[in-house]
Design a protein that fits this description.
This protein is α/β, with parallel strands linked by helices and 347 residues long. It is built from ten helices and 14 strands.
Length: 347
Amino acid sequence: MATNGLMASSSVFLHRPRIAFASRTNHTAGKCGKGRVSFMGIGTRRLPVVLSMTATAESGEEAVKSVLPGNGISIMVNGCSGKMGKAVIKAADSAGVNIVPISFGSAGEDGQRVEVCGKEITVHGPTEREKVLSSVFEKHPELIVVDYTIPSAVNDNAELYSKVGVPFVMGTTGGDRNKLYETVEKAKIYAVISPQMGKQVVAFLAAMEIMAEQFPGAFSGYSLDVMESHQASKLDASGTAKAVISCFQELGVSYDMDQIQLIRDPKQQVEMVGVPEEHISGHAFHLYHLTSPDETVSFEFQHNVCGRSIYAEGTVDAVLFLAKKIRLKADQRIYNMIDVLREGNMR
C-alpha cells in the first residue's frame, strides 16, 4: 500500500487494480453522517479558501527580513517534555530562534529540568503561572508561546495567554474549541490556531476543499475505501482523514465516517501498510481509494508522514508568520495555517 520512501507527499494514481483492504478493526470513529467536516471551519465558523495563495502586499522584502530567524524573536514551548514539544524546540533552534529556558507542564513535572539541544529548560507546574509568564513576557517583549500540552489544558492555557496578552501558536488539539476561539477573539491578541500544523498536508486539504467546492458531484457513484495508520496511542480516527472524506462526500461519494479502517497494530503497520519500524511510535499514513461503479477506473490519494518534523517545521513557520504580523501591526486576530501558506514566505 505505502512506500517506505514516500513521506509527507500526496499522489494520484489512475487505473490501478482495486486494492484489497484488510478487515475492519474494532476501533470506530464517531458517526458523522453526510455533514461536511470542514478542516477550515470550527463549529459554524467557515474560513474562506481561495485559489490564489500568493504573498500579500504587506509581505514585502523588508518585512520578511525583519523577522528572519534569530532577529529578536523568542519562543516559550509549553509541553517541552513531550515528543512534539522537543521536536519544535529542535526545529526552532535550527532556525536560529531564541528558546526561552522556561516551560509550563503538569503538577508532577513542576521543578523538572528538561535538556533539549543542549539547553536546560525549567518546567513550572500550574501554580504561579501568570506571574511566571508575565515576567518572561516583560523580559522578552517579542515572545511567542508555542503550546503542545494536553487537550484538557487547552482552554485554561488560552485564557492565561489572553489575560497576559502574549501571542501564541496553539498546536494542541482537543479542548472546547468554540470556547477557545471565543476566549482569544474577546482578548484581541495575535494567535495561530490549527489542528494540523503540517503545512504540506494543509495545502493538500485546501486543494481538496477547492475541488469539492468547484466540482461538486464529480465522483458521483464512486465507492471509497479509507485506511489510516497512526501510533497505537491514537485511538480515534484522524481529523485530517475526516476532512478529506467530507470533501469526497461533496464530490458525490457516499461514505460514513465509521467505515474508516484504523490500523493501530504495529505488526500490521509494518507488514501491510509499510511503515518503517523506527517510525511505529510516530507516523501518519493515509490512503484514499476511489473506484468507479463498473470498477474500470480507480483513483488513489495518499499522504504518508514519518516522524514529527513536518509539524515542527510548520510550527516554526507559524511563529515567524505571527512575528511578522506583530511587527507590521496587522490585525490582532486568530490566524490559521492557510494564512501561513498564503503568505508565501515559508522556509
